Amino acid sequence: MLRTLYRAGGALLKVKRFLPHRRWASSLPMNTVVLFVPQQEAWVVERMGRFHRILDPGLNFLIPILDRIRYVQSLKEIVIDIPEQSAVSLDNVTLQIDGVLYLRILDPFKASYGVEDPEYAVTQLAQTTMRSELGKLTLDKVFRERESLNSNIVHSINQASDEWGIRCLRYEIKDIQVPPRVKESMQMQVEAERRKRATVLESEGTREAAINVAEGGKQAQILASEAQKAEQINKAAGEAQAILAKAEAKAKAIRLLSEALAEQNGNAAASLSVAEQYVAAFSNLAKESNTVLLPSQTGDISGMVTQAMTIYGTLAKPTVKSIKAETEQEKSEEMP
Predict the structure, then answer these.
(1) pLDDT for the residue numbered 38
(2) For the whole prediction, is pTM greater than 0.85?
(3) CA distance 249 to 255
(4) SS3 of residue 316 by DSSP
(5) Which CATH architecture describes the domain 76-178?
């Protein structure tokens, strides 16, 4: 007997679990003439079977027998759990998806007379809309555009529920389950994408390193060339200054020599200098090379000096004449 009652009670609970929840079908308040309506509730009153009015929160009076409270609508935000259901995406992947729906009754009259069971109607509408919206997206977009999917479902529900006096505030997807094989392929895709990013990052690092090495070599070559250029410029400037210094010294020596030759006994001094240079050059001939070119009269120093002085005298005559001409011209210009 107890076992039979237990089974009957379990069966009754299962039947109640799958029956749609109807708030208006619960025990309704009785007409006691004086009624107190709670806040955020709307009591729909019928008089002789026709809609009469909606009672406001607070104190209300009704006529016995004629007036009857037909529906009680809650104006609070209602949370409805959308059961799990199957949906097929655009790329033919079967998904198991469930969600939570948040709604509120804005017009108690439409919610009472526009649809038999507003909550059940909205639940069915949410399920069909969810399947319709999922069929427009591929599997990857379902996960990436979850927020957009929720907003599209809310928009579609509101378009149909306006006639029922119900406003859908928001819809949230709780869980999305994919087949095991698809899940494994998604994991493999994620791993491949990570390996790809790692390879790309490694190649970019190698590229940046090669660029840095090339830039360093380029800068080193530029600095080396600039240093070599500066060295050559400094070296050329030094050689130029040395040449100028030698030229100035040689010019000064020639000037002094010319002044000394112009003085008395200058020829004798020149003959002495030539003789000394001849002796010095002849003494160094055997030191520099094994092959020696000797003049025909190596012992005749006086002959060599005389020959050198003759060449000097021949070259010095035009210079002396030009000097004398310049001196006479300067004297003629100085005379008034």
Answers:
(1) 92
(2) no
(3) 10
(4) helix
(5) 2-Layer Sandwich (3.30)
